[in-house]
Amino acid sequence: MGLLIILFVSFMYIICSDAGLPFREELARSPQKILASAFAQFLPQAEGNTTHPSSSANSEGGVDGCPPAGVAATSDGYFHGLYLISTLVKLMPEWLLGNRIVFDTFLLVWKSPARISRLQNEQELSILQVSHQFIGYVFPICNHCKQANSF
């Protein structure tokens, strides 16, 4: 698990550097991939699939749209996704304007019962502290969009 964190931090340093421009541009062209990796449970289901992941338990034991413990796409992926998107918005503010699905997904994440439940079960952080962190990610996005009169 520690290695994944080291790799992610290294990746973020690269993304933020001048040498990371090609990576940023590729990420900017792939918002669906970012969302699918970090927030799959909040994306619309494929046609023909009538089961919503947040409404039932999956075969691995996950409930209410949250992956089960021990799966690679746990809260680390969730927070890495938030951090990656926040970083892209800071480096490329216009990116969000052309990707409304990213903002809409943020709203779904914010309003999700699974998020509220997880916050209520957190032992180390209060709901206000975690909400403050989340708002720290979303506020720059909203501020930029307000300046651009787009949302």
Give the overall silhouette. globular
Structural class: mainly alpha
Number of domains: 1
Helix content: 55-70%
Radius of gyration: 16 Å
Kindly estimate the percentage of residues that lie in beta strands according to DSSP.
Answer: under 5%
The total beta strand count reads 0
Mean pLDDT across every amino acid position? 74
Head-to-tail CA distance between termini: 38 Å
Which spans of ≥5 residues are poorly predicted at pLDDT below 50?
46-73
Element pattern in H and E: HHHHHHHH
Task: Let me know the largest β-sheet.
Answer: none
Please work out how many helical segments DSSP would assign: 8
Write the layout of secondary structure elements.
Layout lengths: L1 H15 L4 H8 L2 H8 L36 H17 L2 H4 L2 H12 L1 H9 L5 H22 L3
Describe the overall structure:
This protein has 151 residues and is an all-alpha fold. The protein has helices at residues 2-16, 21-28, 31-38, 75-91, 94-97, 100-111, 113-121, 127-148. It has one domain (2-46, 56-148). It contains eight helices and no strands.
Summarize the structure.
The chain is an all-alpha fold and 151 residues long. It has helices at 2-16, 21-28, 31-38, 75-91, 94-97, 100-111, 113-121, 127-148.
